[in-house]
Amino acid sequence: MATFLVRRSIGAILVCIAVTFVVFLIFIVVPGGDPAQRIAGKNATPQNIINIRHSWGFDQPFYTQYWVMLKKMFGGNLVSYTSQQNVLTQIVQGMPATFSLTIGASIIWLFFGILVGVLSAITAGRLSDRVITVLALIGISMPVFWLGIITRYYLAEGGLVTWFPDGEYVGITQSPVQWLSHMILPWLVLAVLFIGFYGRVLRGNILDTINEDYVRTAKSKGLTPRRILVKHVLRTSLIPIVTLFGLDFAAVLGGGAILTETVFDLHGVGQYAELSINNFDLPPIMGVTMYGAFFIVVFSMIVDLFYAYLDPRIRPT
Amino acid sequence: MAQQAGETEFTLDTAAELASDEPASTIRGRSPWYLAWHRLRRNYVAFAFLVLFVVVLAACALAPVYASQVAHSGPNANHVLETVKVNGHEVSVVSAGGYIDKKTGKPCTVSGTGCELFSAIPIGPTWFSAGGKFVLGADANGRDVAVRLLYGGRSSLVVGIGSTAICVFFAVILALLSGYFGGWIDFVITRFFDLFYAFPVVLLGIALGSALAINGFHHFGINIESGSLWIPTLVISYVLVPYVGRPLRGQVLSLREKEFVEAAISQGASPMRVMFSELLPNITSSLLVFFTLIIANNIVLEAALSFLGAGVQPPTASWGTLIADGQNLIVTRPWLALAPGIAIVLTVLSLNVFGDGLRDALDPRAKIKIEH
What we know:
Chain A contains 13 helices and no strands. Chain A is mainly α. Chain A folds into 2 domains: 73 residues, no CATH class; 220 residues, MetI-like (MetI-like fold). The longest helix of chain A is centred in the first third of the chain and has 36 residues. Chain A is globular. The model of chain A has no long low-confidence stretch (mean pLDDT 81). By secondary structure, chain B is mainly alpha-helical. Chain B folds into 3 domains: 29 residues, no CATH class; 69 residues, no CATH class; 216 residues, MetI-like (MetI-like fold). In chain B, helix 6 runs parallel beside helix 13 and helix 12 packs antiparallel against helix 13.
């Protein structure tokens, strides 16, 4: 286990270093034109651009530029030149909203995803299965931001009814009830896509597992259908779902919820990046991209370690 | 051998003789493609949705005809100061704004709760009562939404299909190289895939899209200007390469161990020949399914990036930018945001259902799986 931990950590560190290099390439090397002008933002004065060129080392070789960028990123000195705000501070401020959104939504999508998958698998071929399949496909085909805009208008802004408060984030420490009522609609909207996706994957897995020999054995032993489903079928069918869940959870937390946050004005990390796009203010986008990727790398390492702990076969010798 | 064994014994030769007596029409070669087509043909739902997709495609392709013959406008033509005849009444395309109640959409007093200031109110859907003008209404700049919807569909479909083609092309090459050669080539390619799995798709798309949106791309003799549709197309195709490449690599890896590959190599076939004449035809069915489902995925991704401002750049219409425009006016003119969204849902749904049918037909045991 210790060797696995060490090897996996070294791997994660290497990926993180590669991530910083990719970020450097994306923002500084690949795009055309003057990088100083890009970093400075839309409304920069010529003097600003000269200062940035100097402080980011754009007049020096590329390895110096890379090194300067790393120092800025890890020293917490990354500043948006449009708003004059520190990027790291802004990201930390957005975290409670992003965490609230992701954790709540993931519980909903896992629960309903499994429910939908099981329901459609045990009624496979019947009307309810078909209805669920169609609904799941529609759920997968809807752009999450559009669903957000529409539900916010019709269910929260009073287009049809006013069941939910109209966007914004309220801290859980400030008022737990308000927090809950503000989060429910964003949670549901974010969860729809995943519910459809997980339901379909799980349905397929269950239908594959039902034909296994050990399920037939369980049947011939005279176990009740419910017991067979829960103890024998679902246990194996859920393994890929757990893997998917780990990856999706990390991806949503690492910035994937940007669209939902934007539509519902939650002021999370993703929305911070979105607001910066409108001004073409690159430092915040750089920061969110890199910290998001770091988060995913670390989180997937934790998931792997957890797996290795649960299932010794995964540990490499 | 057959002669030595005598006439009573049933051998392959006698079987062939017996078979030759039967009418020729009953023994017909059935290729996997024929079988797949046979299965697909009976899937009426998949076909109905394919027709829906073709209708959307045709409608968007005919956008210029609609614009010039029906709406008498262009995708970026500005009609702010004009009036239009609706059922015989002159109505201005964009009326002066004012305070509007967010709940009822009716004018209200400044002090009222839920009152919001709108700078301009465009005309709502006329549903052909204005002779084909402003069928779905106008946007805040007085542009015909129906025309922009069709032109936006063109950009969205061009970006969606184009990015899929580029993405699948590179994913296939990488998967073939990685699966055929193995060793350090495989190591480098899989590490490349792993690295890009670390970035959330939308975030990586935003990073590339916004960095390139300012000055465009000017390297290796390729010059792409900042407003070009090539930028979202390339960004999306690049972002998704690992998601298509990794499952394909797995397939190539298992095919690589099959006897027919060994046979081809022992006959002296070059690596190129093995990759493109032996391995590629065997992953074609997966490619077809991927192609359909990835187009659906890319249309949604394009809409998301354009909605956030990192995809198709205004004033060019795309379904994503149309939703972004419509979002601000949803209280007074909900159709501005509803119409492009419905267009996306129909298109993507049709591709998903057809892709599902295609998968069932080509691969009944469902080996092809997409990681999203």
